[in-house]
Write a structure and sequence with these properties.
heterodimer, A: mainly alpha, B: 310 residues, alpha/beta, Rossmann fold, Alpha-Beta Plaits, 4-stranded antiparallel beta sheet, 34% helix
């Protein structure tokens, strides 16, 4: 049974410090920017290059989603990861972890509350940004739905949780928040590099970032999607288990 | 006979090739204010961290009221309150919010918690600052809040690691007064290297060096252990010089200083010294203004134990 008081504290910390505000503003900004940019990118390019005659295809709602996925899986996700990388490392650095772990909070309670709070916060900011993006896409293109939208969103959500778990892992193994953030960024880059090889993309827990675009243009099969979904879920379970095993034995 | 609150047997902690704690054994009697002394790097913090389950012992046993503690288990946490040397709080919380959070970690009902927080804030003198953010607290205020959070669960044992080492003299006195006020209510096990404070509040002490137990007993017994004492005499007339001549060759004299009518003597055998000095006073009809046998301070004993001589 999880220690509810500690989970409450974790959620309150996101709200009372600037973390939640930063995330919600960032995610919302890119959620609105994506369809707007997709709609007006041609005009912008024409304005910028008056000497050249540029012929570009008419933008559609697909371009809005492409922009949305690109933004959500890059800058937004990196900022979220950096915030999570500080969560354990900062408590160790400041010494607040010792006051908590010497009370009736088990190491499982501690790390699982951090994990759960990360999922809750990520889910909220993702839902808000998604609703905003859908609203603007519909407003600008009169259409937003496409085949595979649901599986795409599930994959996007799971991939975010995978990276959050990876950030939690770096936060546990690093001695300072700065090292944790650096390790988190290296982890993000490495898993993204794996997407270069098409053959292993679907087996990569972070494979969704490439697969989302393929689903959008109808170039991905259901089997590939399911494999990626399983790989990402497994990735979360494996990274979380390793994180907990290390933390359980860690001397503070 | 008092029960044993904390019992440590042959506790050892090795970091790579450094032996931080070396087969340390000690017993903290229930209700005692137990001082854990040692020079910097003696292994005090490592030992306390093992007692509260933050560090895994290499070998040895720790028992709290007869229950063996195992690393990673959070059993018996209700029995212990802990304050580390540098307590870290959540700066965004107020003092009252922090105590509420600390209490809720033990699932203390809100009605009980409310009264307890009020009492503890009063005990540590933070009632006026209860709604201020902890981030703006001075070190002394943080230390007092640290003591309050260590007492939030009404523990049987309070473990304090260097609670006054980083404080100014006023902050130190405030915190030591709070610790002294706990006497008889809970067992206090605290480490320090400020010996005057330990001497003032503790009834039992242990002195460790290089992770080893050098001396453990009640403060009273430890004082009596030392045979070496200082005596001070002031004569009514000019007899100091003849006093010097009569005792200077005695085997019990370690050091003798004469200044006018005053004499300061360091002796290594107090009983013999007193018999012979009294005899000389009576035989020579000496009038004395002052005759003091000074109690040995814990500092004297600590320095001797740590330096390896008596």
């Amino acid at each position: 049974m999880i220690n509810k008081a500690f989970l409450r504290k974790e959620l309150m910390e996101y709200l009372k410090t600037s973390k939640f505000i930063i995330l919600i503003i960032l995610f919302a900004f890119f959620a609105i920017l994506s369809p707007v940019l997709a709609k007006y990118i041609n005009e912008l390019l024409k304005l910028l290059s008056t000497d050249l005659a540029i012929v570009l295809p008419e933008p559609t709602y697909v371009d809005a989603w492409l922009q949305f996925y690109k933004n959500m899986t890059s800058l937004c996700l990196i900022v979220f990861m950096i915030i999570v990388t500080g969560t354990v490392a900062q408590e160790k650095n400041k010494g607040s972890i010792m006051l908590v772990l010497t009370k009736k909070v088990s190491r499982f309670d501690f790390i699982f509350s951090k994990f759960l709070a990360g999922i809750i916060i990520y889910t909220i900011v993702l839902i808000v940004s998604l609703l905003l993006s859908i609203a603007y896409t519909y407003l600008l293109f009169d259409q937003f739905a496409y085949d595979g939208l649901i599986i795409s969103l599930v994959l996007l959500w799971l991939m975010g949780i995978f990276y959050m778990t990876l950030a939690l892992f770096t936060s546990v193994i690093a001695k300072t928040p700065t090292i944790a953030a650096l390790l988190g960024f290296v982890g993000y880059a490495l898993f993204n590099l794996l997407n270069i090889a098409n053959s292993i993309q679907k087996f990569n827990p972070a494979g969704a970032s490439s697969l989302l675009n393929q689903i959008l243009v109808g170039a991905s099969t259901n089997t590939d999607n399911i494999i990626c979904l399983i790989a990402t879920s497994l990735g979360i379970v494996v990274v979380y288990t390793i994180t907990y095993m290390i933390f359980r034995k860690q001397e503070i | 006979m008092a029960k044993t609150a904390v019992k440590i047997s042959n506790l050892t902690k090795v970091f790579d090739d450094l032996v931080a704690v070396d087969k340390l054994s000690l017993s903290v009697p229930e209700g005692a204010i137990y001082g854990f002394l040692g020079p910097n790097g003696a292994g005090k913090t490592t030992t306390l961290k093992m007692v509260v389950g933050m560090t895994e012992p290499t070998s040895g046993e720790i028992e709290v009221y007869g229950n063996k503690l195992t690393f990673g288990s959070h059993k018996f946490r209700e029995d212990i309150g802990f304050l580390p040397d540098v307590p870290g709080f959540y700066d965004w919380m107020t003092a009252k919010e922090y105590l509420k959070f600390a209490g809720s970690l033990y699932n203390i009902p809100n009605t009980v918690l409310k009264d307890r927080i009020r009492d503890l804030l009063q005990t540590v003198g933070l009632t006026k600052s209860q709604n201020k953010k902890v981030g703006g607290f001075s070190r002394g205020m943080k230390q007092r809040l640290g003591i309050a959070q260590a007492l939030i669960n009404n523990p049987k044992i309070v473990i304090l690691d260097e609670p006054v080492s980083a404080l100014d003299p006023i902050g130190r006195k405030e915190v030591m007064d709070i610790i002294a006020s706990l006497a008889g209510k809970v067992t206090v096990f605290f480490s320090s290297h400020i010996l005057a404070d330990v001497e003032r509040v503790c009834d039992h002490v242990i002195i460790i060096k290089d992770g080893r137990n050098m001396l453990e007993d009640s403060v009273e017994n430890i004082r009596n252990l030392s045979k070496s004492r200082e005596m001070e005499m002031e004569f009514e007339n000019d007899e100091a010089k003849s006093f010097q001549d009569s005792i200077k060759n005695s085997g019990w004299v370690e050091k003798l200083d004469i200044e006018g009518k005053k004499a300061k003597i360091k002796v290594n055998d107090l009983d013999n010294a007193r018999v012979e000095i009294n005899k000389w006073i009576c035989q020579n009809n000496i009038m004395l203004k002052k005759y003091i046998v000074a109690e040995p301070t814990l500092e004297d004993i600590f320095i001797k134990v740590v330096n390896g001589n008596d």
